[in-house]
Amino acid sequence: MKKFLELVAEDLLERKNHSLHELLIIVPGKRSRTFLKHILSQLIEKPRFAPSIFTINEFVENESKLKLIETIPAIALLYQTYSNIITKEETIDNFWYFGEMLLADFDDIDKYLVDAGHLFKYVHDLKEIEQLFDDLEGDQIELIKQFWQNIYKGTGAKSQEKVRGQFLEFWKHLYKIYEAYKKELSSAGMGYEGMLYRETAIKADKNQINFDKKKPVFIGFNALSGAEKQIFNAAKAAGGLFYWDYDQWYLDKKHHEAGYFMRQNLRQYPSTLGDKHNFDNLRNKQKIECIGFPGELEMAQKTAEIITSKAKSQDDDPLKNGIILGNESLLTPLLQTLPDDTGKINVTMGLPLQNTSLLGLVKILMQVKQQKIKNKGNTLYKSAWVIEVLQQDIINTPNLKETLDTLINEKRLFCEVDLLQADPIGSILFPVKDINLIEYLKSILKAIVEYNDEEKNEKDYFNTGAAIKIYSAINQLTQQIENYKLDLPEKLMVRLIDRILSSINLTLEGEPLKGIQIMGLIEARTLDFENLIINAVNEGFLPSSSVAPSFIPYNLRKAYGLLTFENQDAVFAYYFYRAIQRAQNLTLIYNSNEADNDYGEKSRFLQQIAFEFPNTITENKYQHVVTPINENPIVIEKDQTVQPLLNQYLNGKRKIYPIQLNTYLNCPLKFYLQYIAKIKEPEQLDSGIDQRIFGQIFHDTMELLYKPLSGTKKPISKDMLLPLLNDETILKQINHIMAQQFGNIELQKKSNGMISLIEQVALKYIKRVIENDIKNEGFSLYGLEEEYEIKHQINQDQTITIAGKIDRLQASGNQIFVIDYKTGKVPTQKPRFEDLFAHDLPKRPEAAFQAYLYTTIIENYEFAQNKELTPSLLYIQENRPIHPIIFSGRKQETYADLKNDFKAQLSNILTELFDNTTPFKQTEDSDMCTNCYFKSICHR
Ligand code: SF4
Fold first, then answer.
1. Does residue 665's CB lie within 6 angstroms of at least one atom of ligand 1?
2. Residue 440 belongs to what domain range?
3. Is residue 810 part of a domain?
4. Distance between Cα 907 and ligand 1 center (Å)
5. Which of 244, 411, 598, 648 lies deepest, with the highest CB count within 10 Å?
6. Ligand 1 atom at minimal distance to the Cα of residue 666
7. Nearest ligand 1 atom, CA 926
8. Is the pLDDT of residue 731 over 80?
9. Does 322 reside within a domain?
10. Which tens digit of pLDDT belongs to each residue from 381-408?
11. What percent of the chain has pLDDT over 90?
12. Is residue 631 part of a domain?
């Protein structure tokens, strides 16, 4: 089966007896030109003069004698024109989106040769319509009437009245803006695309296009705008040739939307290639494979698998293997999935900058000024921001990766600039001196281009392209700001850059004549591939559900012959059917995951071909297979590898702490992973401050304040405590402790409201403890935050050391309270003694267990002899002194009553822990796993 461009090239060579230089060929896009030249060069045996081949855009730019203005200067000028006519103050960043819409509407109006004076006419009275628009046809007048009727129809709703009023006010000015804007552009010898088309169409209408005394040839067009039709008319009059790419299948069916425009084209400009046989391929299609996959990654993987099975490294024919991406965001997963030995790949498509990781980085970097702090001549950056920057894929120098690890591990809120400056890229990203934002961004983009160039990493070529595009957009913008002397505060500038960059497309154009071709649907026009995969064949992409926003309402678009959403569907239908009509091996892949909100159901085009070619289609649908992964529980035997590690507790090298025993009781496997295998949970730097750090500040401050009163065993009086109840004294100590944790505390407070909050909360709770201690005067303090230990005999040969740091040992008379501070909420229920040693119990009374174990530890110390020991908790959120632990249903029982039972159970659990025949197993209650770091290991 011959490809469309082969048919065209052969016909041209035959028709012109190889005198191609007599032709002026016009094609829809650059890619069609490249491939046409390639095919011509393969058919020509002897060197010949090449034909002139232009894209339609190049042709109209030449003919109109206007230079195409780029989007950024075009919208900046439109802003000026708008501001001169509508005096209401509108900032340029607010205007930008509005300007893009307005420009697209002006573009449409000119491409479709619409009389803008008519369209933007303000109608005072419905009767005016027939008089004003008497040159329009009956149904056009009806549509216009409907539009104005809707506008005038009162609904009584105030908000709607207001919107209608605003619309009419704006509508009144549109024609003035349109005219003034075009005048400005023409006087500068410039124009937007539509202007260039209209100018050329006017010339064509006056028969002033001479096509350079050559025969005009138009290849591969479909939906023609009014201006294009006028140009085609002139070409027809000049004996032009028209090569249309279509299939009889949809052409012959009067209502098939894929043939909607083509039927009109063939009537008005008959096809130069008359032989219908070459255009009747769909009817004879042998096989179409449709596959549904439940996600983007799976679609990308399948695409890579199919294409690599077909592509041979020696395949240089660029029309052999093609991939059309219905959704551009599939490009990155696809490139990552293609194996390294895939051979040449060419990507030609428009990729929104939004889909590149570089734009993400640039947006983060735009916050640089708020992240930098000067302190006594030193420059610091907020660590959370530095981490965010360094975690971006593009920043991958080894030095900066190391800095990133350091910052995460050290958990400091600020990062000294010296740490970052050691790396050349780091010194640009994190400057010491104040720098203008624009210059800062430009220097980074330049560095990224140079770095990627040095690295020569092919996968980075996106970043290089994106960096160049962003650099040039920023340059253009600053130039416009200078031209129009716009006074933009930096905040507004940041918003404007953000808005502009978010709507820009990166045009990827690689070496197109080798290897696998990856493209968008539009870039595939006129091309036929032997092996073709189309991806994301879902509603929303094929056809696209996004209709370009417009100020011109639907009725008016329809009345004036502008493209509407129905036309857009017909355009997509043509692109789709055209792409598949000559493919020999065709695979259509869609996202079958109905829960994926980014995708609609499978495309109507798929449903349509399933109906049209029922015997040709094979369909397979894959779903995520959900299998109970945890069929084999994780069990760690205490074998020769584990025993020596466990024995460190038995040979005096390690002590066991209450927190470790709590972990073991909750989940023996977690104890193994955390304390034997020593798998550490990574420290996360939180921009807020967690409970654990707050607890530490409270404990350490209490220790500092009470230390002078502790250890003497003398009763502490109210007078001794009152000096502590002073905000300044307490704050001084809190700040001293916080400075150890966070560095310069005054500086931190300025930038982190959380620090001041912590300070105030800690002050409140510490004062409350002191106040309660004052009420309870006469107690003595035996110790604060001190570590105590006991030896515990597991069996005849084995002893371990149980140790614990006790927050406060307080004595009143003969009673010693073993106190553990608790910063969390006060539990609503009393603990149960039976639960202290329970395995697999989600709400085990860990605090009571810990306080009981501390008490068991100090029991053997001399100061505790003959004393009444009382395990207690002090909940700092509660306004009362201490909670001696009372178990549910055991009100009368004290530590003395329960200690033997406690010790017996402690012995049992320690025996179990060190018993080599009892393996470490996972907890049986998966509620215990909810916040466990090892969830991914356990598949819980
Ligand atoms: S995830 Fe569950 S089973 Fe695994 S270690 Fe954590 S608590 Fe134990």
1. no
2. 355-504
3. yes
4. 24
5. 244
6. 7
7. 2
8. yes
9. yes
10. 888 899 889 988 787 788 888 888 888 7
11. 48
12. no
